[in-house]
Amino acid sequence: MNTMLANLVKSSNRLTPNGIKLSDFINRDSYRGLFRLWFFDVGSVSFLFTSLLGFGIAALSLYIDKTSSIGLVLSMSVISSSMSVLWQLNRLVGAETSGLIPGYQRNVVVQSIVIYFSVMLFSLGFAVIFAPQTVTSVLLAVLISLGFLWGCLHWNKGFQFSILLFIAMPFFDQMTLNVPWWCLVIPLGILLELVKVKLGQLTWHQDARATYLSGMEMGWFWLPSMKQHNLLDKLNRYLHPASFFVGPLLAMALVMVTLFGLILLMPSTLFEWHLPVQLIIGQLLLMMCCLVHWSRVQRWRGAETLFMLPGFTGLTGLQQSFYKASVRLITLLVLSMLLICIAGYLMGQQLSLPFIIHLLLSVLWSGLFALGLGALSRNISQMSATMLVIISHSLFVSFSFKALQVQQDMDIWLIADVALTAAGVCLFIWSKNRLWKNSVIDL
Fold first, then answer.
1. DSSP-derived 3-state class of residue 244
2. What residue ranges in 76-167 does DSSP mark as E strands?
3. Number of domains in the chain
4. Which of 327, 351, 348 is nearest to 338 (CA)?
5. Are residues 279 and 252 in the same domain?
6. What is the pLDDT of residues 191-233, one digit of tens each?
7. Residue range(s) defining the domain that contains residue 82
């Protein structure tokens, strides 16, 4: 009896009590507010933009006959679209007032399904027609994204682990080398049914809004809590004031990312997995640069508190201090990558000196671009442009790893690194005096 009553109460609290019907997908009212809802929210538009960019890169790769990279970028499109859908669903189940708008809850669910399925079907269709060898890896991306979607609908805080999906993307091709595509069809059907059932059971959740706001402020970058000790405290002071808005997370992330890279090298070497550890660590280090200004823009009111702290001589002094702290941060990131490269070389990775220099320069120019563009950003929409730096760095280093495998000459890559570093230095220096140019109150 208690179970029946509990199910009855739970059903009455569902956001879509009557479920989603097939007629809802052909009803024009279901798509009202689509543009405003998806393209004026920084979380969803960032992921959607990444998804659309993946299709553009896939088309470009096909044009220049680089079909080997199509699976990676299509996987990026699928996973990014699922993150955008999860972002909107998290926002929906965390909003207590969403029921006051007629049809709003149904529209969000319908639009989420349509957007995800459109990206999924287009990605699979593109792979089948133009790059059949990548179909299995794209299907795996669909399976993983659906599984993550289903898991986050059960436990909304799981969205904070979305970074793991993007880290895993470069391994999809290796994971599916000896797996035929038809083996993934049955698990795909099961996951689709599970997600369908869960979408019909959406209810308001008290933790969803906290997850949404945490994602907005911290850029979806999550680390487990650690007690502060002398090393982290000194490192945090060394990075001040660049670490002011992020807090101890910046110093903690630098230490943990470096340790993660060193630990990941061990199984990669022992079991001959040939994981691109330097690519993964480079992406995480770049995200730390983006996090500095992402949190600054989100917590812009804290700039007044920073400005009032002793040690700065007016606004110019604050700009100079922030600039010097950013230089120290980039230096530490390059040293972290150098440590990973030396450890990889000692463990038997085939890393030549030119390739190590290339990896160090790639961390340098990507960090300069991220911090430079971040300093120029006045709002989150502008800050989202740093996603281009992350994607460009990922593709650039991915292609260079493939060049290393076929023993291609590294001269072209080093020339490109030097040119990008020069451009990054110019942007970084120019952006120094653009930070808080309208005073700390007006960003």
1. coil
2. none
3. 2
4. 351
5. yes
6. 988 888 888 777 766 665 555 555 555 444 444 444 455 677 7
7. 1-222
